[in-house]
């Protein structure tokens, strides 16, 4: 009985160890229009003002990004820039949710959706659902109705092979989908696209695209 209990405890501890999250720290810089990674995987954050905290699950997948300013969530970002992004995973889907602090990004603030569900097939994005939420307390209903014509409350669309598509904020994740950068069929890395912010983001994307193609 004691031996069986010891084996059970050992197995449980092993399983727990295998499922512990890890946290990575990256240096970033606010720009006039975005966030820009300047250095991956810094070990000492004591003298770094802008630190991106990345949480990675036991399967090597990013689950959260937090943009910090002197150890606190960045306080006054541009309306369309999240200060926190979460990722959850189900069978063949990635759900990405954008926040300002604890609150989701409202469409009435900057005309954008706050959540996307990426549907994958063999690590390729084939379909995306988007979700928007409106500030019905501070914004008149007629304005919200007009906004819904521009940014619908819900969309569900199939990706075009001719339009580059990726998991938006994976660009700021080092881990991504266990070192895979999911994209649509026909994706071509645009060397002129300012969204990648130059190095080191672009190199990380190039490396993870290779990983995806080799699996």
Summarize the structure.
The chain has 215 residues and is α+β, with helices and mostly antiparallel strands. It contains four helices and eleven strands; from the N terminus they run H-E-E-E-E-E-E-E-E-H-E-E-H-E-H.
Describe how the helices and strands are arranged.
Elements: H1 2-18, E1 22-30, E2 35-39, E3 50-56, E4 62-69, E5 72-73, E6 84-90, E7 93-100, E8 103-104, H2 107-110, E9 115-121, E10 124-131, H3 141-150, E11 154-158, H4 201-213
Antiparallel strand pairs: 1-2, 1-3, 3-4, 4-5, 4-6, 6-7, 7-8, 7-9, 9-10, 10-11
Report on the structure:
This protein has 215 residues and is α+β, with helices and mostly antiparallel strands. It has one domain. It has helices spanning 2-18, 107-110, 141-150, 201-213; strands at residues 22-30, 35-39, 50-56, 62-69, 72-73, 84-90, 93-100, 103-104, 115-121, 124-131, 154-158. Strands 1, 2, 3, 4, 5, 6, 7, 8, 9, 10 and 11 form an eleven-stranded antiparallel β-sheet that branches. The longest helix has 17 residues, at 2-18. The protein starts with a helix and ends with a helix.
Short key terms for the protein model shown above:
32% strand; 11-stranded antiparallel sheet; 11 strands; globular; single chain; alpha+beta; 215 residues; disordered N terminus
Please bin the fraction of helical residues.
10-25%
Radius of gyration: 20 Å
Q: Let me know the average pLDDT.
A: 87
* Helix vs. strand class: alpha+beta
